[in-house]
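Suppose a classmate hands you a notebook page containing two proteins, each written out with its sequence and a corresponding row of structure tokens. How would you begin to make sense of it? This section walks through that situation. The first entry is reproduced here exactly as it would appear on such a page.
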Amino acid sequence: MGQSIKDVMTSELCTIDAGQSVAYAAKMMRDEDVGLAPIVEHDKLIGMLTDRDIAIRVLAEGRSPEQVTVGDVASRQVVTIDPQQDRDEALRIMAKHQVRRLPVVEEDGRLVGIGCRPGG
């Protein structure tokens, strides 16, 4: 078996609460230089907010980033992987679901990292 995803994931995460405004999230994402913000409640992953979510679900629809909450526009159907899974399996999952970043989640739902496709 090859490297586990735990060995290559990013574990320093900038998470956000679903009740925060999209404006707050966008500033946080800019300051942290990330295009993705995991949404957590009690350390458990409940969704993901991407820069694309902000562009498509807020700005393109003429909604106010100050008034819309992260929970209103975030993706709730999130594909995840267990930290013990093989890195190659993570790459297969990313290719199958056409995602560049994959949340790494413990069995109890606790977010522990993000796996990234090379160049992603």
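The notebook's second entry, a different protein, reads as follows.
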Amino acid sequence: MIVLVVENEIPAADKIVRLLKKIDKTITILGVIETVEEAINQLQEKPQPDLILMDIQLDDGLCFEIFETINVEIPVIFTTAYDEYTLKAFKVNSVDYLLKPIDEKSLKTAIEKFKKVYGDKDPFKRDFRQLLYEFRNQYKSRFLVRIGDKYRSFPAGEISHFHIIERNVFLNDHQDKDYGIDYSLEQLQSMLDPRKFFRINRDCIVNIDSISLMYSYSSSRLQLTLKNREKGDLFVVSRDKVADFKRWIDK
């Protein structure tokens, strides 16, 4: 069983990890994260946890912002020092609601409840479901962007291109607005669906749906025009990528 711990208090997180390993030695801790932003990013990646232990009050807000931003279908055991959020917790994927300080008995009961409700005794069904999930979620479908003290989630289909400005990477949407992100272009290449996105040069990855026209640019390169944007050197396909680009665009 893979468990993700979302907890901003280090002593509490350490205690939860220690109790989990004591209760069930087969548990693998996917990670310990402290903020809403980190949780949203983690829950869009793979592998996915089977269960989340989640504090309600995190460093950058209440955990319910996670569920309002992305679709989370993973069961959650909430941990908190307050009981005022009980009803709201059970409106999402709550298995149990534990008040701090967490003790071994209450956590063990919650884990047993999770196994009873969500456990699958058929290993073939469990493995097939995991394979199907991984196939469907092989590529990143959304990107969380921080804008001041707020967050916005961009579906991959609403992104025109990614590009570098002075060593910083930006997401550009269909309104031609740039938003800074914390990924390199190399990381993005492995995250994005290669049927939809192509790295045309060292500074730019484009969405196939954003390309409106292509021109010859010298004898061995191509110039792209993206929808509602001016031509520029940013959208020139590198000489060494032209052949692969033509194959990609012609699929």
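A careful reader of the second entry would note: The chain has eight helices and 17 strands.
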